User: What shape does this take?
Amino acid sequence: MIAATRLILANLAVAIVAFALGALMAVMQAVARAGVQVPFGSARMYYLSVTAHGVLEALVFTTFFIMALGYLVAGTTLGRVAGLKWAWAGFWVALVGTVITTLAILSGTSTVLYTFYPPLLAHPAFYLGATLLVVGSWIWCGVMIGSYRAWRAAQPGERVPLAMHGMMTTVIIWILATAGLAVEVLVLILPWSFGLVDRIDPIIARTYFWWFGHPLTYFWLLPAYVLWYTVIPRVAGGRLFSDSVTRVVFVQFILFSTPVGLHHQFTDPGISSGWKLVHTFTTYAIMFPSLVTAFTVIASLENAGRARGGTGLFGWIRLLPWRDPFFASVALSMLTFALGGFGGAINAAYAMNAMVHNTAWIQGHFHLTVGTAVALTFMGFTYWVLPRLTGRAIAWPRVAMVQPYLWFVGMQFFSIPNHIVGLMGMPRRVYTGEYQDVAAAQAWIPLVNLSAIGGVILFVSAMCYVGTIVVTMLVSPRGERLPMEYAEAMAPPEPGPSIWDRFGVWTAVAALMIIIVYGPPLYRLHTMARFPSLGFSPF
Ligand code: HAS
Ligand code: CU
Assistant: This one.
């Protein structure tokens, strides 16, 4: 039996419940924007729903899923999770925080969207709950590091297993990212939301937010990459291209994903264009490990397709296990991420960002990236891992087989029109496609309707997923547990110590880079004349 199975299942369960609730909100938003009357339809409900959707999917579903995956990887590659009591304490802290924040949102007092930009003001419970969620995740970080160190002390000369290497880089990115969030919430937002100070500086708060918010996206992505690299080649029937290249890629994510964030603030005043340019460089740097990943995962899949007898330039693609729900989820995630990454390169260019910033393009972009590359990989992984954790076979294999394809099709319908309508000038975060009947908005409506159809298909897919998982857990009989195995590498790791396994060194380098790229712009913001704002709760 896999170590810490109950802990893993508990974290997964919270993730899936959050996902289901968030999906319900999402479908209402998609159809409401297309002008369909939904129950309680009003601008107030719309933004409440968008806040709940963003927080539940982007912050709760991801964080709990990643914590589950971290424990699974530690339990299977190192043999044990050290500090189980702490891990459970972290789970409860994060869960209590999640419940508090969710209730604050549902009460209608905290409609501030998932980025909670000041001067939008939420009830203090919203921020306190979110703080507890992060504290819970820090405990997870502590348990992961403790498990790694205990293993390292017992195995001084050995290379850390590859999947654990990837999870450790995820932990490090999360710690470096949440340092910015801690300043924003503890120093700026909490005193203001409790009324101890009456004004807040939106730009300074936002700058600390994006110090956190950008690496946050890699905190989501890297666990998906861990699965693409260390599990999928085996599921596909082949081997990973190279162990060493993978380690270099993971380390590059520590170095390049953390000293970035100002590309979310290209249009913000008070930050010089020079520092924005520096962040543009680091943004393009962060594309590099994903491009290497594209090469490596395709090479691994080709290896699998040829091992299955595939020939010719593309003949191997057909022979991949397209009916396996985990494989299909990941392959479709990869195809979608190729599009999402392409959009990312456009966002990152200062001049082109001006065309897409704050338009519907952005919601198109992040539903391809976090909403598919990450979320669909996680969903597919559930089908694979549950029989290994519990011995229960997936209850509705046909539904599971179709579900990733539905997601893929639904997401193209949702995201591509959003990209186009964004280029046509439709802002993001708007309540209706009609936009108070202004003439320019007429041309948006067909595309908004198309994206609503995508939203409905996505909802059907989400319910297929949740239904299959719930029935599997409640109805499928327990049988033999399938083995939990990772992919072998065509080029295995070289024996002996390696610089790529020195997490402390890379963390220190990344911290230094963060100080270099954020120190001067933040110093300037803190020392120049500022005009902070009172809080607003428009809903
Ligand atoms: Fe982004 C905004 C730039 C990646 C998430 N991004 C966002 C927001 C979110 C988000 C949530 O520079 C909105 C935030 C908000 O609410 O305001 N993003 C990038 C760049 C990348 C990128 C350069 N984003 C991500 C990932 C995310 C994510 C990953 C979540 C997981 N993004 C931006 C910028 C903005 C932004 C600006 C601000 C815009 C604004 O103005 O507000 C890159 O990392 C992308 C690199 C990826 C690739 C693709 C590699 C392809 C692979 C698969 C290939 C395999 C295949 C195999 C095709 C280069 C690895 C198929 C073969 C078979 C046989 C199946
Ligand atoms: Cu970013």
